[in-house]
Design a protein that fits this description.
With about 170 residues, this protein is mainly α. The protein contains seven helices and two strands.
């Protein structure tokens, strides 16, 4: 009986995380995305270069938001708060591992990767917005969920045009 209770407590602890840990992972996610897209800019076709440039800029803006938030002393207690680890956590963390798309990546491969990444971010930030404490942190996650949803929809539209209309971007 005691052993079972210990196992349940361990599982409960594993399901918790702090807002600080979430911010650290999200900051790393955004930095990895920014660097990935920045490195892709000279490699992609001119048809999607503008999009890759926009994605790099957006990821830098998200990185800046997380970095600024982590430095704010007025929310230090919220940052220490424990919240439920989102179910999307492992999928989100998996996006830190970036693919090698080669020196001349195919537009379709770039768009597929970007759509998957934006989808993972959208799910993760949506889930975090539902569990984060009220205030600036929840507002940030709601904002980012909305941003990632817009990015995903834009990418899906471009992907459809590229794949189903023979590249009429």
């Amino acid at each position: 009986m005691t052993h079972e209770g210990t196992a349940q407590n361990m599982e409960r602890l594993r399901s918790k995380t702090t807002v600080r840990e979430i911010l650290d992972v999200a900051t790393g996610f955004e930095a990895a995305a920014r660097d990935f897209y920045t490195a892709l800019i000279p490699k992609v076709t001119k048809r999607i270069r503008y999009l890759v440039e926009e994605l790099a800029t957006e990821e830098q803006a998200h990185y800046n938001l997380f970095s600024t938030l982590a430095q704010r002393t007025d929310i230090s207690e919220q940052i220490k708060a424990e919240i439920e680890r989102p179910a999307s956590d492992s999928k989100f963390s998996d996006c830190l591992h970036l693919p090698d798309l080669g020196e001349q990546p195919d537009d379709q491969a770039v768009l597929q990767y970007a759509m998957g990444r934006e989808h993972a971010a959208m799910e993760h930030y949506t889930e975090l917005a539902q569990t984060a404490p009220d205030g600036p942190i929840r507002n940030l996650f709601q904002y980012l969920a909305s941003e990632e949803t817009k990015h995903k929809l834009e990418l899906e539209k471009l992907y459809y045009e590229t794949v189903h209309r023979g590249g009429g971007v």
